[in-house]
Structures are given as C-alpha cells and as structure tokens.
Fold:
Amino acid sequence: MSATKIIHSIPSDPLTGSISVPVYQTSTFIQDAPGVNKGYDYARSNNPTRKALEDIVAGLEGGDSAFAFGTGLAAIDAVLKLLSSGDEIIAVDDIYGGVYRLFTHVYEKLGITVKYVDTTDADNVAKAVSSKTKFIWIESPTNPTLKVSDIKKISKIAKSIDALLVVDNTFASPIAQQPLTLGADIIVHSGTKYIGGHSDLVAGLVVTKTASLSERIKFIQNASGGILGPWDCFLTIRGIETLDIRYRKQCENAEKVARFLTNHQAVDDVYFPGLTSHKNHEIAKQQQNGLYGGIVSFTLKENTVPAANAFVTNTNYFKLAESLGGVKSLLCHPPQMTHASVPREKRLEAGIKDSLIRLSCGIEEAEDLIKDLKETFEKVSTNKFAQTS
Structure:
C-alpha cells in the first residue's frame, strides 16, 4: 500500500468533519431497545475508535479483518487460544523471549507441544512437522539475529498438513512485507514498535486472512477481553499516518550503520538482511520489497557480557531500553533484556551470543548515529586500556 493510500485509508469523522478519528472514551452505548443499537453495545465487544484502527490495519496487510489488543503478547495469546491440548507448534528457534516464555510457562503445561527449528531452511520445517502440528510460527526477520524465512515455501508445507502459518511481521512492518499475499494465514504485530512508532504506547494486532479465522479471533477477543483502549487506538492510528516515511528513513539509517559496523575492528558478526553477506539476503530482497528494516544486531570480538555492558552503557544517541521501532534510536543487550527468559544454552543454539547487541535505528541523521557508535567504541577501548595499564 502506497503512502497516499495509507494516509487516505484513515477516515475523517462523518458526523463533525474532524480530520482525526475521534476518541470514543465510553464504556457503553445507549440502545434503542434490547439488542437494537447502532452497531455498538459495550466497549469490550466493540468501540468506534478501535474499529477504525482495526479496519485500517486490515487494509495495510490485505487481510479480511484485524483485531487490536492491549499488548503484542495479548495478541499472540489470543491466537494461541485457537489451539487445543495435544496440538503442536513448529516455531522459529530465534524467537522473541516473551513468546518463548508464553509458550513454555503457560501453554506447554496446558498440553501444547512446541518444537523449535531453524526455519530459514524450509526442509527443517518439513522434517519437524507431524500429524499434531496445527501452527507453524515464524518471525521474519527474527528478533534479534534477523533471520529471514521463505514464507511461500513454508506456507506450502503448512497447507500440506492442514496447519496454519502464523507470521510475526513486526520487524518488516506492512511497508516492507505482506505475509498474507505470500501464503500466511495469520499475522501478528507488536503495534508498540513500528506501527505505533513513537515509544508512547503498547499494543498488539492480529490480522486474519479468511472470514472463518476472523470470526474465531473476534470471539476470543470478546470472550477474553484483552482489548486495546480507545486512547491507545487513537495513538496507534496517529502513528500509522507517518509509518511509511518513518520506516523508510529507519531502513536507510540501519543500512548505513550496518556497513559501518562491518568495517570496525572491534566487531565480530553483523546481522542485517540488507548486507549481501547475510545468509538470507536473497530471500529478504525478494519478499521485503527491497526494504530491510531498521534493526541491526552485532557481536563483539570480545564475546563477553561485561564487554557488551560496557558498550551499551556508554552511547549517547542510542538509548539503553527495551523495545524498538520508535523515532528515537535505542539499543539493548538481548541476553540480559529481551531474551533473558530464554536459557543460555538455547540462546546460543539460536545464535544469540553473549555479546550480541541489538540496535534500533530511529530517524536521526545516520551520520550522527555512526559518530555515536564510533565514539562509544573509542571510549570503551580507552577505558579498558586505562584499567589494565
């Protein structure tokens, strides 16, 4: 969807002519008679501000419907409620720590089995599936090592066993990638990240491909009640207005930062799908519309937690914080932050080394971000030399 279509998919208010979607801050709606209303009865079931957001997001992803939840994990939890005890999920090995925690500590004890595989090779997925597999669950790109999986190939595997392909599209955003057109059945987003875009809200989004799935998720949303409130819906809509221009600038900045890091003597590995050296570069180029995202991860040659700590606590423009996708640049140390809930051995198996640092590039000038990183490397190196001399 073009920037023009995105902006003009956001409706004005037909009642007043307001250019912005109104915030319907109400818990209930007056009915003409029992069960006779204007499409709204109680705000858990529906709200005009939330309905506007959901319609906009469905359009962004080309889905049948979309559903807004209080957080990204609440959105994921709603999708998992489609499963029954005894069902199985095949999941990408390099998965967000919060999802790993939800799978392991909530759903596995309810009888849901999860197998983790490197989904960048579709053959691994084909070998792992069984008659119990109901979901194939991928992030593409993944958090934090930015692995990219072939959605089309994996969707064929899912269809061959009558399973659903769920794609977390948070890192690519609807600007770079439309998983439903590639064969996915369900998309999840942490709307907190690129879609909201200003680090001022938490939100989760689910987009469904078919009317049947829409009906099931709508039932779960209403029954479980983990909805996004009207004010945060308004803020998310506000974020969508600038999504295209923000995301493209962040992609541009990330590519420049990644190229700087590849040439730095203190850096070991750089993870960014836009680099031709990235093992999944070609598939990323095909399915991400030539946009590779605003995230860059890298490891240090001194592959230790103390070395990573020294780096992440000495930057200027890159602020140490959880989350990503906002207009201000952030960085984090996943082994101690976003993926702390994943056991170290499993992190290492997935490629998350002890010194791995994740950068979320904002919309600052790339030259300033590179200068910040360069000065941080120098500062850390100087301090280390002073301590050992």
Residues 366-388 form the longest helix (23 residues). The two ends are 58 Å apart (CA to CA).
